[in-house]
Amino acid sequence: MDKLKRxxxxxxxxxxxxxxxxxxxxxxxxxxxxxxxxxxxxxxSCHSGYGVIGTALLQRAREAMCFECHGxxxxxxxxxxxxxxxxxVLEKVSAHPVVDTSHLHRTxxxxxxxxxxxxxxxxxxxxxxxxxxxxxxxxxxxxxxxPGAVRGSIGDGPRRGLRKKQAEIEYEICYLCxxxxxxxxxxxxxxxxxxxxxxxxxxxxxxTGKNKSVPSLKLGLNENSRIGCISCHDNxxxxxxxxxxGSDNEHILVARYRTYDGAEHTSAYEICYLCxRRSSILGDxxxxxxxxxxxxxxxxxxxxxxxxxxxxxxxxxxFNVDVVDPPGSGGPITYVPGGGNKxxxxxxxxxxxxxxxxxxxxxxxx
Length: 366
Known about the structure:
By secondary structure, the chain is of the alpha+beta class.
């Protein structure tokens, strides 16, 4: 920037500080970066007359500036100023790679990404509008994305979604990177496809669920309840800062979820039991052979269920093909709902054949 223009911008910053009392929420207990009580230096906390070239006159690079307060790197009066140490959470076992990839952020980038050759990244600015974010609304002002009526995986034609200047619902922010992005990794699923309300079943993120009989739901939840992405993807330390920054559980999960077979325990499927009563599941209230599968056969929830949604089957039923094979008699792996919680599966699991005629040579129990 021309040096002659820097003093002028400096004066604008000083003027903005002088007008701090006009900032929405000032003096009303809404803690934001522009609240003089929370942040006495206001604009000058981050900006200076001669800031880092290539930035909005920031005193340090973008994320480094955030970590001055939201981390353990700060110096002097800024050290640990904020009550949330986000940098420590971003260093957990599973986390959004802000530290490693935020330098790839572009101010005028268009998300979901349309260029498959560009490297993926995540930066604080992707989810937080730093000037207006607050304790009550940490993602206020962030951009969002609504998928189109036609949803599919990468390669199925042009996307028909709507980019929003401001997201209104949490999942619209997540869809910026985890839905129709052209540079989404090949082993990464399009979550907008999985949560599609037209699917046979889905966890109620975009819409209330289709199953109007879920006896296992805990008190406070019912068949018309909605959940958000951070209901499952959140900091595993409940006393720490909330949000999908990082967790010591795989996939930034708020609680543990074992995806391989083994003995049933509250800790094995902790995340499932946050919403579903363990006593109900093991009491066969939803499915007559739940206990047989989970306790006796030690079959993991993940062997039979997906977490987001199933395009074909009710009850989030989709079989893990790393464990489940087609039936010995031939034909594809198939799930037939049946009535009264008495479905039939045509497959081979742990050497046990489930066919049209019966299970491992014995007639079906129903």
